[in-house]
Specification:
The chain has helices at 17-20, 30-35, 45-48, 69-77, 89-97, 142-150, 153-161, 163-171; strands spanning 3-10, 54-57, 81-84, 102-104, 116-120, 125-128, 134-136. By secondary structure, it is of the alpha/beta class. It has a single domain (3-140), classed as Alpha-Beta Barrel (Aconitase, domain 4), CATH 3.20.19. 35% of the residues are buried. Residues 35-104 form the Aconitase A/isopropylmalate dehydratase small subunit swivel domain.
C-alpha cells in the first residue's frame, strides 16, 4: 500500500460533505450512498470512476458535516486516494479512520483531470506518469500508515488489541 497509482478525477476548491455525500440519501444503505458520491458537483462521477482512481481537489476539501458517509461513499465508489491543497480536519481524520489515504499537496494545480499519477504514501512524492513531473505532498506519519495498512482504525485496533477488546469498548458508547 505504500505506492498507489491511478487516473485523476480533478475538482476545485471547497468541496463540502453535502456535495460529496448528498444528504437526501443519508437514510439509505451505504451502497446507495456510494452510488450518489460527488453527485452534488458531478452527476457522472460514479460512471467515470474506476477502482483505484485518485481524486485531486483544490483547497478545503471536505468541510461541513462530521458524518463519515462522505469518505465512505468515496472509498466505496472506488476512490483509491485523495490529494488536495488542504482538507477540513474532521474529513481528513474520518478518511484515515476508514482507511482512505488523503495527502496534502500545494502543487495540485499542476495536476490535470485524466493524468495518471503514482503516490508514495511514505515519502509524499507524487509522480505524474502523464507529464513526467513530480510533486511533493506531506508524507503520512508512521501511525497513520499503520492505520491505513490495517484498512482503517477499527481493523487496526482489532489487530493491536484483539476483537474482544474493541467490541467491549464499542459497547460502552
Amino acid at each position: 500500500m505504500k505506492i498507489l497509482q491511478g487516473n485523476v478525477l480533478k475538482y476545485g476548491d471547497n468541496i463540502n460533505t453535502d456535495l460529496i455525500s448528498p444528504p437526501q440519501y443519508l437514510e439509505k444503505s451505504l451502497e446507495i450512498i456510494a452510488q450518489h458520491a460527488m453527485e452534488g458537483i458531478d452527476e457522472q462521477f460514479t460512471k467515470k470512476i474506476k477502482p483505484g482512481d485518485i481524486l485531486v481537489a483544490g483547497a478545503n476539501f471536505g468541510p461541513g458535516s462530521s458524518r463519515e458517509t462522505a469518505p465512505i461513499a468515496l472509498k466505496m465508489a472506488g476512490v483509491g486516494a485523495i490529494v488536495a491543497k488542504f482538507f477540513a480536519r474532521i474529513f481528513y481524520r474520518n478518511a484515515i479512520n476508514i482507511g482512505l489515504p488523503v495527502l496534502e499537496c500545494q502543487e495540485v494545480d499542476r495536476i490535470r483531470d485524466g493524468d495518471t499519477i503514482a503516490i508514495n504514501l511514505q515519502t509524499g512524492e507524487i509522480a505524474n506518469k502523464t507529464t513526467g513531473e513530480t510533486y511533493k505532498a506531506t508524507p503520512l506519519s508512521e501511525p497513520v500508515m499503520e492505520i491505513l495498512s490495517a484498512g482503517g482504525l477499527i481493523p487496526y485496533l482489532e489487530k493491536k488489541y484483539g476483537r474482544d477488546f474493541v467490541d467491549y469498548k464499542m459497547e460502552k458508547y
